[in-house]
Write a structure and sequence with these properties.
Blueprint: H1 2-14, H2 37-40, H3 44-59, H4 62-65, H5 73-87, H6 99-103, H7 110-126, H8 131-142, H9 145-148
Helix pairs in contact: 1-3, 1-5, 3-5, 3-7, 7-8
């Protein structure tokens, strides 16, 4: 796990993780723009912590661990960082394979998908996400369910 976290730190430096993130405040405007969830919860450093906790928790589950090839963890963590950052309205975006293609052949079941989303929800709660914001994120994530689950009869 520490090896993967080190790889993620390298990725974060590339995206300016340690630069301050300015919220929607503009002193020249009468009203400030509402910050994105990405900004509200601390930007790239918070997202990276969530991703690290997420994979730590997934890898602790023997059945879920089988879906993740250890040699691909830095790449998977990078993709997850970009995906979650995008969902939260951040400046980073996932530009990899289509999710359906990337998950084809893995045999991911509805139960396992649901377990992964529950882990993510717990990680978001642990990061301080308010209930309404958590619901918004999980609603967005639920849209990709059909692209991840192998057996569509289980959706």
């Amino acid at each position: 796990y520490r090896m993967y976290a080190s790889s993620l730190q390298t990725i974060l430096l590339r995206y300016g993780a340690f630069e301050p993130i300015v919220s929607g405040f503009n002193p020249w405007m009468e009203e400030s723009i509402k910050p994105t969830l990405f900004e509200k919860y601390g930007g790239i450093s918070t997202v990276s912590n969530i991703v690290q906790d997420f994979y730590r928790d997934i890898l602790e589950d023997e059945k879920l661990r089988a879906y993740f090839a250890p040699g691909n963890m830095p790449v998977l963590m990078d993709h997850q960082l970009k995906s979650l950052g995008q969902v939260l309205g951040g400046p980073i975006h996932y530009e990899g394979e289509e999710l359906k293609t990337a998950h084809a052949g893995l045999g991911i079941t509805a139960d396992d998908y649901d377990k992964v989303t529950r882990i993510l929800a717990i990680n978001l709660q642990d990061a301080g996400f308010e209930p309404a914001d958590l619901e918004q994120v999980m609603s967005e994530i639920s849209r990709i369910r059909g692209d991840i689950i192998e057996n569509n009869e289980e959706i």
